[in-house]
UniProtKB/TrEMBL annotation:
Transmembrane segments: none annotated. It is found in: Cell membrane. This is OLC1v1009355C1. Belongs to the small GTPase superfamily. Rab family. The keyword Transmembrane helix does not apply.
Length: 177
């Protein structure tokens, strides 16, 4: 954690998208600061957070952008997507609607972002397994069909959050290096 290293070899912009309240900001808090808050307020103001990691002996600064509560369909502006080389497309496994909206988000993403963008589909809140409304198989199938990476996470329990980001960042690294 922290940006203690002196020299940065790469800066990768990654955007978080998906419906409101699926856990985007908490996934980011977990990844960037190893923090979590159960009563997180809707995101205001903060545009992005960074974390520098080492991938194959190179220093990679991940610049992760979080929507400032603009998750209403089409409210996320093209500036948000500009320059993004990775995207985390998040839904809540306990809210079927948030998964049903994923194709829209994907369409929006593909309309605005670079065509080589690396995309990870994330089903968040797997700590709430007893309230699951989206079968893992459905999401896996969708991801396969669309050529996306796929993982289920819990920002609360820190499950797979690190893996989700390192998978995307390593894939980007392999493309650009
Ligand atoms: P955003 O609108 O997509 O940024 O969603 P937030 O990150 O603000 O999270 C919305 C709510 O879901 C907050 O009350 C969070 O504490 C909660 N939340 C986020 N991630 C998880 C998770 O993995 N498990 C559980 N149980 N709650 C979560
Ligand atoms: Mg938020």
């Amino acid at each position: 954690y922290g940006d203690a290293s002196q020299k940065v070899d790469y800066v990768f912009k990654v955007v978080l998208i998906g419906d409101s309240a699926v856990g985007k900001s908490q996934i980011l808090a977990r990844f960037a600061r190893n923090e979590f808050s159960l009563d997180s307020k809707a995101t205001i103001g903060v545009e992005f957070q960074t974390r520098t990691l080492v991938i194959q002996h190179k220093s990679v600064k991940a610049q992760i952008w979080d929507t400032a509560g603009q998750e209403r369909y089409r409210a996320v502006t093209s500036a948000y997507y500009r320059g993004a080389v990775g995207a985390m497309l998040v839904y809540d496994i306990t809210k079927r609607q948030t998964f049903d909206h994923i194709p829209r988000w994907l369409e929006e993403l593909r309309a605005h972002a670079d065509k080589n963008i690396v995309i990870m589909l994330i089903g968040n809140k797997i700590d709430l397994e007893d309230q699951r409304a989206v079968p893992t198989e459905d999401a896996k199938e969708f991801a396969q069909k669309e050529g996306l990476f796929f993982l289920e996470t819990s920002a609360l329990e820190a499950t797979n959050v690190e893996t989700a980001f390192t998978t995307v960042l390593t894939e980007i690294f392999n493309i650009v290096s």
